Amino acid sequence: MNLAVSFKGVLFSVFLIFNLNSKAYSDDLQKVKSSEGKSYRMLVASLQSTLLNQSGDNPGIGIILRHDDQVIFEAVKGMASKHKSITLNTGFRIGSLSKPFTALAIMQLDEMKKLKVNDSVVKYIRELNGSWQQVTIEDLLTHRVSLSQDLFEDNNLRLANKATNKELISFVNQKSNVPKLMAKGKAQYCNSCYVLLAEIVARVSKMSFAEYMKRNFFTPFNMESSYIFEKPDSFRKGTALNYARNRQFLGIEQYTTGAMGQVSSISDLKKFVHYLKNGAVVSHKTLTTMTKPHVELEGGFYGLGWMVGEEGRPFYAHGGDQDGYQSELYINPELGIELIMLSNGGASTAQIHGEIIRKVLKYFRVRAKSEE
After folding, report:
1. Most confident residue range from 4-13, 27-36, 97-106
2. Amino acid 27: pLDDT
3. ∠ CA(29), CA(34), CA(35), 5° rounding?
4. pLDDT-based confidence at 20, cuts 50/70/90?
5. What pLDDT does residue 1 have?
6. b/e per residue, 43-65, with b = 16+ CB within 10 A?
7. Under 8 Å CB-to-CB from 109, ≥6 apart: which residues?
8. How far is CA 104 from CA 99, 256, 300, 340, in A?
9. What's the rounded Cα separation, in Å, for the pair 290 and 303?
10. Element containing residue 168 per DSSP (H, E)
């Protein structure tokens, strides 16, 4: 397991399905055509069978699937902690799924004309040395910054323990750690970039990043289980524990925010998606800009805070992988589907994530083809 928070789980599963050719669907096409209206009976039964592999006594998982704004499947199974079962309102650390929220906070400030995405980061984080002058906010959003040293590498586990955004800034500001811009249209996954973005949000808004998210996301969108884990006393009772055992991951405490650090529940993320789609978080125009391809990243495409589909196959998504915690959020306007999954069981629940993603995407791709 890598210390760096990853989104590879959802990325590779999504591209596996969307790269299937039409022949791959042919065996299932007749089954979907013969299904009754929009009962989704076949899909629901298949998803239920996948959850049979999840024990109710082990770390668990929460899932919600919506199609055309209607919930067609939701389920929770397993333990948040030794004595508490997971519910739809259980908060999980969502790892890199924090990144779209950070990007949206930046774009809110852009819409309010409090910053511009083509501004240099040094304009807002003035202690950064001159090598950062070339780096813009948009470069951070699109992972176009390559660092010679990364605080989130495995060999920096000791340095990352109890690290805050302040420590991260000091680390990236070392003379030996010169930022380099990737070639236009190319990117390299950069957790440090999103910590810097959180710090920009805090400095521009003149409040902590946690307070900004509370005032502009969690409270107005009724996300009651959501918060930013930025210091030891931030942790709320009832939050799902890592492997249902403890609040550390990889044996450390970490308080950096922006790239990670958010806690949310299935119920909260469902509310968030509703407000996002209805233009309450940022304008529809801004969301369109954020969810179109800006760079190539790790075998796919990335927008501003979102992993996105190539032109003609619109979707936007992100995932997180942080020791035992796994998170996935996938939105496909073309197919009309929204899929949210959170878990705390490591490889065992990650496998269930993968199976569910494959089944859902295959079903709706086949269904769409049957209706042509």
Report:
1. 97-106
2. 45
3. 100
4. very low
5. 43
6. beebbeebbeebeeebbbbbbbb
7. 115, 201, 204, 205
8. 9, 18, 21, 18
9. 5
10. helix 165-172
Q: Alpha-carbon distance 138 to 45, whole Å?
A: 44
pLDDT band at 292, cuts 50/70/90? very high
Q: Cα separation of 96 and 106, whole Å?
A: 16
Q: What percent of the chain has pLDDT over 90?
A: 75
Instruction: Give me the amino acid identity at 120.
Output: S
Kindly report whether the global pTM for this prediction surpasses the value 0.90: yes
> For the chain, which domains are there?
8-370 (3.40.710.10)
The residue whose two tokens read 């609040």 is 247
Q: Which of 44, 81, 45, 76 is nearest to 61 (CA)?
A: 76
pLDDT by residue (tens digit) across 142-172?
999 999 888 888 778 788 888 999 999 999 9
User: What SS3 class is residue 320?
Assistant: strand
State residue 367's pLDDT score. 86
Structure tokens at 220: 């107005």
The pLDDT assigned to 149 comes to 84
Question: Which residues, other chains included, contact 171 with Cβ-Cβ below 8 Å and sequence gap of 6+?
Answer: 149, 151, 159, 163, 177, 192
Contacts of 72 (CB under 8 A, 6+ apart): 40, 43, 44, 65, 66
Quick: pLDDT tens for 178-194: 999 999 999 999 999 99
- CA distances 175 to 103, 231, 292, 350, Å, are 27, 28, 35, 39
Are residues 159 and 177 in contact, defined by beta-carbon separation less than 8 angstroms?
no
Mean pLDDT of the chain: 89
- Residues 107, 84: Cα–Cα separation, whole Å: 37
Give the Cα separation of 4 and 2 in Å (integer).
5
Are 352 and 51 contacting, i.e. CB atoms less than 8 angstroms apart?
Answer: yes
